[in-house]
Amino acid sequence: MSALDRINRFVVLMLENRSFDHALGYLRKINPAVAGMADSDFNYEDPVRQLDKVLVSRATTSALSFDPSHEYPEVQIQLYGPAKGGKANKPAHPAPMSGFICSSASPGGARAKQVMECFQADQLPVLTALAQAYGLVNYWYSPMPGPTWSNRFFVHAGTCGGLTESPGKLASIAGFDFKSGTIFERLAGAGLGWRVYHTDTPQILGIQSMRKHYLGVSV
Questions:
Q1: Residue-by-residue DSSP string for 54-67
Q2: Which of 13, 163, 164, 167 has a CB 3.0–4.6 Å from the CB of 171, allowing a cystine?
Q3: Which residue has the higher pLDDT, 140 or 94?
């Protein structure tokens, strides 16, 4: 019997609004093979004029007191920094990752610098233990550098269907349809069971074909 023959279930846990550095970057202090951040990493509050440097630091709260901007235009600024006029600089490789504080200035105000806080290992004991005991991918990127709905759809359907911004209420109610279906339909077609266990109800119900499962009806 091979190792694959003994796998009965896959469980997918998706964390929202958590970057690799935010959740696991400090593991670099324990394991140098982890491509985390260094204590010298920083952002400027004003990256255009390079004023008011803020270093990465230990998290002081489990959740920010504001919701950081994460629509597509704001994420471009976070990755590549702002240019004069408020738009993002042109993409560069590697991305300088220099616009996180300034991108959060509008929703966060004086609290915007909190985005530079990251969890240390003792603050996330379970996640740290899992990262040390199993495989850890150093370089992982969201399918679409933008909002929640688009990236959740990639998990459920392998595509965002062209959605690059958070949908309004009317679009959410109307629902979305994907030509190639969802991973759940593929699993069912292969005779395999599946279940959505917790919390992703808004995006699941945003997919038209999933509503009948939620309502417990057959069509």
A1: EE-EE-S-SS-SS-
A2: 167
A3: 94
